[in-house]
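The data are passed on as follows:
___
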Amino acid sequence: MVDESTPLNAATATAAATAVAANVTTTADGHVKVGGVDVDTKAIKAAAAAVLTKENADKAKVFAKAQYDKLKKIASDGNMSLTFLALVGGVAMMVTSVMGVVGRFLTLSWVGALFDVYIFFFGVLVVFLEWKKFPGRDKYNMVIHTYFHFLDYIWGRGVLYFVAGSLQFSLFGLLDIAVGGFMCFVGILYIIVGKIAHAKFVNAKEAMLSEHTIAAKFNEADVEDKGSINLEQFEIMTKSLGMELEKREVEIAFLEIPKVSDKEDRITLESFKNWWTKADTLDFV
């Protein structure tokens, strides 16, 4: 037995190898015993061969490629929710700004600390706008609609997110650049996707769809017969009206339409019709 406290050198390594070898014996039927315990080497080889076959390797390769293609398609098709991206960015702004303000107070960097305070409140505002269950949302939502009416528009949110991201990016810390750049990207996405969705709705309006047709399609989508529809049902309705909208474009358009309430993320036929009649004058950008 080699003591674990013995310094590792050539002599001790040789002694350890000799000790292990002394405990290994081979039986006539091909079994190996280590320390008196049977080890079936044939079974081990067979299991290894079964796992490491070319067929299994090919299957693993196909599976990996399928997952890669799936992720690539999600990225290219824009299936990831814009509101989710904005929410993640808002939370990241809050977290990184708290970390930043602590560090800058310790280094007496007062201007940087003040910037971090601003960034924190920008992050809170982003989360407030995108998270329907934000505490006290009902209480403060009217204030937002009254004094910051531009945030009711998609372009308004896009500009806000871009400005907030630019502010954090200007601090030039590694995390600040990453999070700030991400929020700038989200802001640009809001503006671009909003513009595309706006153009498609204007084109659909020019197709002279009657109010009766719109009402019929709305009622078809309202499978729960609630007199209102959610985002998924709104997407079904737009398709039935002949609009070829991407998921993000549907989401952006839905954000623009007044909801039943702040707690219930649904739209009524009346609110959709009011929004629809102003489709050619909507300020998406």
The chain is about 70% helix and 5% strand. Residues 6 and 74 are 57 Å apart (CA to CA).
